[in-house]
Amino acid sequence: MMIYTFTEAGDGHANEDAIAYRSYPATDDFALCALADGQGGRSGGGIAAQTAVLLALDTACAVKPESLLSPLRWVDVCSAADRGVAAAPDTGYCTLVALVVTDEWVVGASSGDSAAVLILDHSAVILTDRQHKNPPVGSGAAKFEGFSAKLGMRWRVLLASDGVWKYVGWERIIALGRSVQGNQVADALRREVLQSHRLLPDDFSVIIIGS
Question: Read out DSSP for the chain?
Fold first, then answer.
C-alpha cells in the first residue's frame, strides 16, 4: 500500500490544513489517515486542524484493529477528537475526515466539507457525501457520519480539502485519480486549479492511498 501526501497554503495566508497518516501499531496492513481544514474567519483554525488529525489517529491506534472496521467506531474516534479540540487552548474550528484502509476495506467518518472518494476502475464513491457541515469540529458537538466501502482489484482512495474539490470538480478528480500515477496525482490536481486561477485560491491538501 502506497501513500502520497501534499499540502500547500493558498495565496496570501498561512496554511490552515493538516494531514497525517501512520500504520496501525500491530499490523502494517492497516493504514490510518486523517485530513482537516481549519475554518477561516476566526483565529485558531490551523491549530484546531493539527490537533484534530493527531487526536483522531492517536485514538484510532488505541482501538482494537477489528473495531476499526466499524463506521460507528470511527464516529466515536472522531467525536473524541472533536471534544479534544474543543478542550485544547487557542483552538478554533475545523473539518475532519479520518479513516482506515485495509487490503479489502476503507472505513471512516467525517464532518465538515473536506472529502474522501474511493476510485475504482469503472466506478467511484464519494465516501463523505452525507456528512454534516455544522456544528464544526472543535465545538464539542460536531456530527460525524460513518462510511465504509469494499475495495476492488484496482483502487485508489483520495482525501481532499475543499481547496481541491471545489476548484477541480469531482468528475475531473476521479478521472485524474484513475489515470495518473499515484505520486503525480497531487501535481495533476494542482495544475487543474491553476488553469483557471493564477494562484491557489485556498489551501490545497490531498492524501492519496493506493495498492
Answer: -EEEEEEEPPTTS---EEEEEEE-TT-TT-EEEEEEEBPTTSTTHHHHHHHHHHHHHHHHHTS-GGGGG-HHHHHHHHHHHHHHHHHSTT---B-EEEEEE-SSEEEEEEESS-EEEEEESS-EEETTTT----SPBTSS----EEEEEE--SSEEEEEE-HHHHHHH-HHHHHHHHHHS-GGGHHHHHHHHHHHH-SS-SS-EEEEEEE-
Lookup: cell for 68: 476499526
pLDDT band at 13; cut points 50, 70, 90: confident
User: Measured between alpha carbons, how far is 204 from 186 in angstroms, rounded to an integer?
Assistant: 9
> Cell 479513516 appears where?
99
Domains of the chain, each with CATH number or no CATH? 2-210 (3.60.40.10)
Peptide bond into 89 cis (omega under 30): no
Q: What is the pLDDT of residues 144-200, one digit of tens each?
A: 999 999 998 899 999 999 999 999 999 999 999 999 999 999 999 999 999 999 999
**What is the Cα–Cα distance from 85 to 34, expressed in whole angstroms?**
14
Go through the chain and tell me how many residues it has. 211
